[in-house]
Amino acid sequence: MAVMVYEEPGTVISNPDYKSTGNTVKLLRIVLTKAESKFDFGYQTSDYYIRGGWITISPKTFIRETGGTIKFTLQKSTNIPFGPQKHYFNSTIDWSYFSLHFPPLAKEIAKIDLIEAEPGTKNDFNFFNIKLKDPAKSDLILS
Asked: Per-residue pLDDT averaged across 114-142, rounded?
């Protein structure tokens, strides 16, 4: 059976529904095309640290269909370094926007998990039951 992937120009899912282990990073948008699956995030620094702390992403981060076992590993990141490198903030009110890029997903997949570490802590960027099939939040990319 052939796997159907997203056709160009693709689909954008804005503010998708999900569950997360932390509360400082927000999944803002998903862009699904036949070339890649891109996840856009916003991160607000914490007042726990004097200058807002730092962020990094594990190069072992992956996505998988919720309840599935096949892992699609992170291919690249934009505006967030792979660990052990870190991006340091200047204040407790800084924001960072970054993207994680994965292989393309099959159109039939309805929910996925994005996992930085298993079992994970509140500091890991773990997202569960990310809903990909939501007509109210999905739009076709026009060009």
From this structure: 87
